[in-house]
Amino acid sequence: MSRSSSPPQWPRLRLVTQRVLAIDAGSRRIKLLLADSHFGRFRVRKQELLDLHAEGLVSAEETKSHLHELLDDWGCPPLALVLPQHLCISQVVDLPLAPESEVDKLIADESIKLSGVSESRIVYDFVPNKTTAKNRQQFWVTLSREGEIRERISALDLEPEELCDLTTTANALIAAFRVACPACSRAVLVHAGAQTTVLVILVAGQGAFASSFQMGGDFFTRALARLNDCREEEAETLKKTQNLFSGPKASSEFAAVVDGWVSELKRQLTEWFRENPSASSESSAFELIASGGVFDQPGLLQFLKEQAALELKPWPKGPDENEPLHEPGFEVAFGTALQALGYSPQPVSLLPEDYRLAWKKRQSRQYLDVASLALVAACVLLLALGTWHKLSLIDTKTALLAKVQASQVAVDENDALTTDLAAEYETLRPVFAAQQNTLDTLKSLALLEQSRSNRNLWYVLLADQQSYFSQPAFLTTNHPVKTNLLSFDASAPFPLGLKSASAVLTNLVAAKPGLIAELCVPGDAEAARQVLSGLVNSLKRQTLFSKADLLSDDLRRNLADPKVVVTDRDYVLSLDFAASDFQQPVRIKRPAAGLPRAGLRRPARANGGDINGEDNVMEAMP
User: Which pLDDT belongs to residue 619?
Assistant: First the structure.
């Protein structure tokens, strides 16, 4: 005994794409149906009916050769084979409640009883059935001899092919009907083939009974050929084209042959309803569904309804009448493909153990291939994302670099323009410095003249510092050399007594932009000191001067006329003009990053007020 477990079924969790070729091989025809499951969606790809007599395939070798050619043309997909129902047994087995580990042994014992033999190796499979009985459990069990299964595989020369599933006609019909008519839970399926009629009863959508008897289309053909004394080919044509149950071509003898078939069908139904009294009371609730080429005979369904009280309905097309699930006659192949791809809620497989192990290995390789492909796809995606990210960074950096280069070009152009402006400014700066010095001198003259008011003093000398310090620093009794003390002339000859030009240059170090004012303050020493102090303090408050103080004795020059000088009351003031931008050359400095460049400007300088503290303010020159 060996149990042939069905392939793992995941109704909504499958590989991305699976394919299977279902083969329903009869004595006269072989039906091929190619289907696949694409992301959980079942689709029929191709259907083909191979008529052995029409194709001239008389011998078994010719049939095998032609079948292999078709398999090669279709890409050699995995195969799902149908085992004729007369080679197997399908039945509901009622067992007491037991652990799952003991159920297999109990069903194995029941399988031996059902088969009636113990020497032959039995292959079986089972699925649980729902039941309302207390402390009981039911299983839909299907079994067959392993030798007959292998003979079936060998008859089609499918040993080297990849078999993924092997089911029976009854189980294939159950799977196909539940998809075609999911709302119908109680039905009697009658499938009449060329050699055999298969009877299947469904209760609550589950298999409850399956049987077969050797009366089919060939049985009717042989009887008609015998009645008409013609060949079977002619009888087959007559059966398909003429209504032999009513009208001018009606044959009572042929109707009697059909009655014999009806009697056997009713006998099996009656026996099952007798053994299942709970279902016999509701026998009218069962729908009778017909399938197979026999029921294509003209007038047969009407005859069965009127004469045999069998209201057989054609096989349903599916939920959508406009889009049938498959072509007529492919019900068994369609159900086989459904089970092989995992769309049957009660899959039953009788695949021998060696084929089952080979298929599991192939599935493992397929899962590994899909996982490897997914890993490669993930790596490619990550690589593409990484490449895109790097390219984005490169584009960003390139754009930033272009901006920096454009900014650098603008900075260089600005620096060049600034340098040109500074150079042009340097050519004009001496003129502006001379003008500024002239303005400061004029303002100083006004302030010094104003300072004499209300004070007892007089000025005896006023000179610019460059001219003043260019004179020798020694005393002389001679009359001073006449010179323009308000404008320094560097080319003027040095006066007598000058030792060397280097001494003059040394004295010029003390010269700054400004004036030297020599004044006399008559009166006693204390009064003169107070007048002089007030004068100096008032001059210091003027923004015109950066420094206003007495000149040290070592820097004094005797340039004033002695006639207007009062001995010991002669004082010399050093008045340094406030610094301006015109005095020093412009220095171009690059500003720090992020800081604006400083423009060239001369700070405003206010010259405030009267030297005596009055509100007489002189306006600063720009």
Answer: 31
- Separation of alpha carbons 497 and 470, rounded Å: 13
Residues 144, 327 contacting (CB under 8 angstroms): no
Angstrom distance (rounded) from CA 307 to CA 296? 18
Q: Residue 334's CB: how many other CB atoms inside 10 A?
A: 29
Residue 515's contacts (CB-CB under 8 Å, 6 or more residues apart) are 441, 444, 462, 463, 464, 465, 575, 577
Under a CB-based contact definition with an 8 Å cutoff, are residues 606 and 620 in contact? Answer: yes
Between CA 588 and CA 424 the distance in angstroms is 13
Tell me the per-residue pLDDT of 27-78, one tens digit each, with 9 for 90 and over: 888 999 999 988 788 999 999 998 887 777 768 888 888 888 888 898 889 9
Bridge partners (DSSP) listed for residue 96: 136
What is the model's pTM?
Answer: 0.64
Q: Can you list the alpha helix ranges (DSSP code H) found in 479-564? A: 501-508, 525-540
pLDDT digits (tens, 9 = 90+) for 88-103: 999 888 888 888 778 8
Question: 291 near 173, Cβ under 8 Å?
Answer: yes
Q: Quote the CA–CA distance of 31 and 334 in Å, as a whole number.
A: 10
Q: How far apart are CA 350 and CA 5, in angstroms?
A: 8
Distance CA 322, CA 43 (A): 16
Look at 105-119, 329-343, 486-500, 573-587 and tell me which has the smallest mean pLDDT. Answer: 486-500
Are the beta carbons of 300 and 197 closer than 8 angstroms?
no
CB 37 within 8 A of CB 138: no
Site of tokens 């009907």: 177
Residues pairing with 88 in the sheet: 144
